[in-house]
Structures are given as C-alpha cells and as structure tokens.
Specification:
CATH class of the largest domain: Alpha Beta
CATH topology of the largest domain: TIM Barrel
Distance between the termini: 33 Å
Strand order of the largest sheet: 1-8-7-3-4-5-6-2
CATH architecture of the largest domain: Alpha-Beta Barrel
Bound molecules: phosphoenolpyruvate, magnesium ion
Number of helices: 21
Helix content: 40-55%
Mean pLDDT: 89
CATH superfamily of the largest domain: Phosphoenolpyruvate-binding domains
Structural class: alpha/beta
Number of strands: 16
Shape: globular
Largest sheet: 8 strands, mixed
Strand content: 5-15%
Length: 600
C-alpha cells in the first residue's frame, strides 16, 4: 500500500505489519535500511564462553581493567582538585562514587561471578551485570537511583573500553544502510556516525534546532526526532524507512511502501544533483545585489562537501568536535594540525573559527563540566573559557599558528557583555607574546575577533559590542531559544520554537543595524540561514552574508537568484510592523509563493 505523508499515524497499515510514526523531520531525504537499536548505555561487545582453564586469566584481565579504570579516574580526580571550589567539589564527589564502584562493589563481584561461574568473557560479563543493576534501579522508581543509573553505565563503558582496548565507538562495524533508532543521540554520538554505513536515524527525544539535528543536516543524513512510542517493544534488524522531509518513520514497510519511498528518494537525489549545477554561479538577486554564502562546518570530514557546494568560505567552524568522545583535552599541536589542514583545503577562502562552545547539550567529559541546575544558562561557552583560561589560551595559540597558512577569523560564542570581549582580546595578546617569544610563525596582522549575537542581552547591547568587535555572526538558534525561553533540544516545546516570533526578528534587526552603523561585517549562521523560507526576510533586513550547512547552499542560492531585493526589503518592512508570528509567517509565505510563481 502507498502511504502519502499524513495519511496514517502510529497505526498498523491494513493487512501488513507496517507501522507509521510521526515526528519532527529535522534533516531531509529518505533512508531505507535495516534498523539498529542504539542503547546509549550499551556498547556492542563480543560474547563467548570460556574454557575452564581460561577463567583465571580472564579474571586477571578484568582485575587489570578495573585497576586501569581506577588510575584513569584518579587522574581526573587530580584535575578536579585544580578546579574552582564548587565545581571541583561536585565533580570530586562524582569521581569518588566511580572509585567506590570499582572497589569490591556489587558490580565487581557480579562480573567476577559471571566470569567464574557462567564462564563468560569479561566484556560480556560487565555488560550483563550493568544491564541487570540498571534494570533493578529502574524498577525502584526512585529519582536519585535513576540518576545513578547513568553513573553505573559510565563506569561500565570505561571498563569495556579498557578490556577491548578500543575507545567508545558505538557505531563501528555497522553494515551498510543501517538506520539507527535510539532514545536519544547526543551531538558526540552523532559525530561518530559514518554516512558510508549509516543511512539515517530516528530518536524519541530531541528538538529541531538541537545540535544533533544540525549535525544530521551537515552529514546529509535523513533524520526524524520526537518519535514518541517508536521504541516500545522494538528489536533491531527490521526494515525501516526514514522520511526526514515529512517527519515519518515506517517500520516493517510493505513492498508497495518501499517502492513508493524508493521513488521519493530517487526524486530527492535527482533534485539535489540538479541544484548542484548552481555551484559555480554567483548568489545574486534579480536586481543585482550580491550575497556571500558560506558553510557551517561541524566535522573536518565535511570539508569535501563544503568545497563541492561552492561555499565562499566557512562562516562557522564549530570546534566542539575537537573535544568530543575523548577523556583528555586536545593539545595545541593537535588543534593546530586539524585547523591548518582545513585552512589549506580551503585554498584562500576564509575560515571563521568559533572558540569552544561547550555546555548545554554539547558536553565534553574531559572538561569536567558539572551541570548546574540549568545547563543552558550555566557555565558554558565563553563563560567557561574565561573561568578556565588555559583552555582558551591553548585554542587561541593553535588558531594564531594555523592562521599563518591562510585567512582566519576568531568568533566568540555566547557573549553577553563587552568585558568578555576585552578579556578575550587580553588573552589573545598574551598568547601572541608567547608565540613571539617561542619564535613560532603566527597570523599577522592578528585575525579579526567577532561576536556571536545569540543572547537577547547581546542583541540589545549590540551598539556597544560592535565597538569592540570586528564582525558579528548572528546565531538565531540560541537567540530564539533564549528570547522565547524554549529549549531548542526539547521536542515537548518544539512547536513553540519560532524564529519568526516578532521579538526574535526585532533582535536580529537591531543587531544587524548596529553592525551596519558601526561598519562591521555581519552574517547569520543559525539554521534559518540555510532555509530558503527565510532568505527574503534576512536579505530584507540588511543581511548579505549567510552561513549554513553545505547541503542547503544550492537551494538558498536558487532562492536568492529568484528574488528582487527591493521587493524583499519592502516586505521585510511590512513584516517588522507586525506583532503576531502567524501573520508574519503568512506575509512571508505569501511573498515567497508569489516570487516562486513569477519564477515559474
Ligand atoms: C546559534 O546558536 O544559532 C549557532 C549558530 O550556534 P550553535 O547552533 O552552535 O549553538
Ligand atoms: Mg549558539
């Protein structure tokens, strides 16, 4: 049977096992493949029975893995002592608890019993024991214990890593065309997905503007989030279709449904190829206004698609990938190598490097961030960097050194006040002096330092910030989140997440005008920059530089080439007089529709 979008919801299709689930489509395209159920707490490990004479050696192997884990945590404890009092103390308690779990606890005894009595290999014994303990906790329905479940899983993952001697790689060795189904994927998990094997994913949790969604778009993986009920009673190995454009997941589809989605996928890919032809054509409006189109980059591996998209540079390099999926911090040399390789690949196009924006939904264990009561409002991004200046110094030194190989700009995330910018400039000078003393080549003149406008306070103080900034990059993702007090990663409120809210638009307008008055460059690098629906409005507000996922670039370019800037500016003025988002959406969509009609 053929399912048109919206035809069925969470129902059995007549006469088949097929089930259709509706969610939020966050990355377009169609994936058809075999499902792999991802349990964040469960690492794929080999499982086999030991010969009797192997048992003692296996117990020794486990004891060594426990000792290694204890030493690793000991190092983290040492680092925690160097942290500011409250942070260090809280992290210290957590690490103490990890150490306790490694000392003759139920976990250790249970694993030893499984190795000895069940003759199970150590990795599988750890995995099974962890699963049993966690299930026991879950059934007690106690908030404190359920918080401890994640701690136990973390210790289990560390033990498995030490046993298998490979880092946490939950998606390695997956067959081609795997579709991941998960309760949740963190941005760090998503960074590990290999598009050569993974065709797409669907999760129960997650919002449209979450970093996981952004990552999916960058990797070009069809994805749907907010799929309540999708995992109930589910097992892996089923055929599954992800329609990231319509926000649908179809489990065990009928042959007719598969055939329908094969056609849909072919059509999607055909359109994408057609748009690719615009690659070398400039982004110019019908009345001759030129627009700069740059790409956002989340992972170095995307550089090929950035170059293929015809981007004029990278308008936002999110450097969090350097810190993800590891227990230690990247060294200056390591960062320098990654950054200078990117600069060389860009061949003279500019690279805007944002300093570490950790915190919120982007977590790096080596930073030892202890989440406060409200992580999105806590010690994150530039606040964290100024509290831990050694992290910022290392990163700035790597950026300055890499900048000797080509044009770079430095972008500061989550700025709220001038004092933060002044502090960064002070640190930059110190770092420069050190490099000079070490006789190391670095970017001269020093790269421009720009401010992310992504907090309402920063937008409202844009005049003052513009005095101390060389450029602005407007981050509409966080700007929308913070202006409307709506968590961008929470599917429960994602219907309220609205970049067309007049308050958000006024802040964008205010910041843009402040930049234009101060004669500094201004771009938009939030997700609206890559959605052709918003292009006319952003240009109408005075923006001439957009940075987006490489995959979105051709479609935005096409939109720009169909636009009359004078008409778009006029429509933007009308829109800015409105107080109701629904009316704004209608005015914008009508304008888009009429231009589309004319273009046809
Ligand atoms: C933004 O907030 O709009 C932005 C571009 O940064 P990120 O999505 O990484 O928070
Ligand atoms: Mg942001």
């Amino acid at each position: 049977m053929i399912i048109e979008p919206g035809q069925q919801t969470n129902e059995f299709a007549a006469g088949t096992e097929e089930r259709v689930f509706d969610g939020l489509g966050v990355s377009p395209g169609v994936a058809i493949g075999c499902s792999h159920l991802h349990d964040a707490g469960c690492v794929n490990v080999p499982e086999f029975r030991l010969a009797k004479e192997q048992v003692e050696a296996e117990k020794t192997r486990f004891t060594e893995a426990v000792a290694a884990a204890s030493a690793q945590i000991g190092k983290l404890q040492q680092k925690a002592r160097g942290l500011p009092a409250s942070t260090g103390e809280e992290l210290g308690y957590l690490l103490d608890a990890y150490q306790q779990m490694l000392k003759g606890s139920r976990l250790v005894r249970g694993v030893e019993r499984r190795i000895g009595e069940d003759r199970l290999n150590a990795e599988a014994a750890v995995q099974q024991e962890i699963t049993q303990i966690v299930q026991g906790f879950a059934s007690m329905d106690d908030a404190y214990l359920s918080a401890r479940m994640e701690d136990i899983r973390e210790v289990g993952r560390r033990l498995v890593r030490n046993l298998t001697k490979v880092p946490y790689r939950p998606f390695s060795n997956l067959p081609k065309n795997t579709v991941i189904l998960a309760e949740e994927l963190t941005p760090a998990d998503t960074a590990l997905l290999d598009p050569a094997n993974v065709a797409g994913f669907a999760t129960v949790l997650g919002g449209t503007a979450s970093h996981t969604a952004i990552m999916a778009r960058s990797l070009g993986l069809p994805a749907v989030v907010g799929m309540a009920g999708m995992l109930t009673g589910r097992r892996g190995g089923q055929q599954v279709i992800i329609d990231g454009s319509a926000g649908k997941v179809i489990l065990s589809p009928s042959p007719a449904t598969v055939a329908y989605y094969r056609r849909k996928r072919a059509e999607f890919l055909r359109q994408r190829r057609q748009l690719q032809r615009l690659r070398k054509i400039p982004a110019v409006t019908l009345d001759g206004a030129e627009v700069t189109l740059q790409a956002n980059l989340e992972l170095p591996a995307e550089i090929d698609s950035v170059l293929a998209s015809g981007a004029q540079g990278v308008g936002l390099l999110r450097t969090e990938f350097l810190y993800m999926n590891r227990d230690d911090l990247p060294t200056e040399d390591e960062q320098y190598v990654v950054l200078s390789t990117l600069i060389q690949r860009l061949g003279g196009r500019s690279l805007t490097i944002r300093t570490l924006d950790a915190g919120g939904d982007k977590i790096a264990p080596a930073l030892g961030i202890v989440e406060g009561p409200n992580p999105a409002l806590g010690l994150r991004a530039i606040r964290l960097a100024l509290k831990r200046p050694e992290i910022l110094e290392t990163q700035l030194a790597a950026i300055l050194r890499a900048g000797a190989h080509g044009p770079v700009r430095i972008l500061i995330p989550m700025v709220t006040s001038v004092s933060e910018l002044l502090a960064v400039r002070g640190i930059l000078e110190t770092v420069e002096r050190r490099l000079k003393r070490r006789h190391i080549a670095y970017a001269l003149p020093l790269p421009p330092v720009g401010t992310m406008i992504e907090v309402p306070g920063a937008a409202l103080a844009a005049d003052a910030l513009a005095w101390h900034s060389d450029f602005f990059a407007i981050g509409t993702n966080d700007l929308t989140q913070y202006t409307l007090a709506i968590d961008r990663a929470d599917e429960a409120v994602s219907s309220l997440y609205d970049p067309l809210h007049p308050a958000v638009l006024r802040l964008v307008q205010f910041a843009t005008e402040a930049a234009l008055r101060a004669r500094i460059a201004v771009s938009v690098c939030g997700e609206v920059a890559g959605d052709p629906r918003y292009t006319a409005l952003l240009l109408g507000l005075g923006i001439r530089d957009l940075s987006m996922a490489a995959a979105s670039l051709p479609v935005v370019k096409q939109r720009i080439r169909s636009l009359d800037l004078v008409a778009a500016t006029r429509r933007a003025r009308v829109i800015m007089d409105q107080s109701d988002s629904a009316r704004i959406a209608q005015l914008l969509d009508d304008f888009n529709g009429s231009v589309m009609d004319e273009a046809i």
